[in-house]
Structures are given as structure tokens and as C-alpha cells.
Amino acid sequence: MTIEERKDRPESLLGCLLLVWESSVTATHDFLSNQDIILLRPIVLDCLRKVPVLFVATEEARPVGFLGMDGECVDMLFVDARFRGQGTGGALLREAMNRGARRLDVNEQNPQAVGFYLHKGFTVSGRSETDGLGLPFPILHMTRE
Q: Into how many domains does the chain fold?
């Protein structure tokens, strides 16, 4: 597996990353309906275009995970369901932490992700009843010293 920062973001790459996102969300976000996923697709695509720092993990030239960050904040981390548990998420998070990441938000209803971040040294510093879009999905705010 290789990880590289992508400043160029051609539509072909973004399409692949959207598939990674959907695979990840389908495997881990039981609380989202198919309608929610359809609603979120264009928002995720827009975020992929705009996030200041984007790391992409590839396996045999195929994207299998990505992490977006803005300053100290991890904005998104998703791994293709077929590559979960193989160190991809940890490697992406290490890259972000090496670049100063120390804050993130995670869906409270995704206990696997919460456990992952706790294991990586993050602690819960706050909670919101709704996500960044105002949808009724509680968010845990986490920090790492």
C-alpha cells in the first residue's frame, strides 16, 4: 500500500474515492438509509474537491482509502470495506497526525470508528445532537494531545 497527498483531483480519481466512501459507509454506518447516502453523495464529492489536504491510500494503483484534513482537523477518513482491518485507516491517520492533526468529529452511532479513534489516543471532548448538515446523527468531538 502507498499513501500520497493528492493536490490534483481529476474527476476519475474523485469518482473512485466516492466509491470508496460508499463502500465504507455501507459497511459501517448502519444508521444511514439509502436515501441518506444518495443525499450525501454530492456533498461528499464537493468536500473531496475542496478539502485542503487529501491523502489517498492505493493498493496496486487502485484507491482503497482516503483522509481529508483542514489544519489540525481530520474532516474525513474512509476505507473501502474490503480493506478494513488491514492497517489502511491507521496509516492514513498517522500521515495526518504527522502533519499536525489533533481534532476530529465522528458519528456517535459508528462504534467501530469511535473505538478506532480511542485506540489511536483520541478522547471525547464534546458532543453535538446533530451532524454538520443539521441531520439527526449525533457527533462526538474528539481531540488528541
A: 1
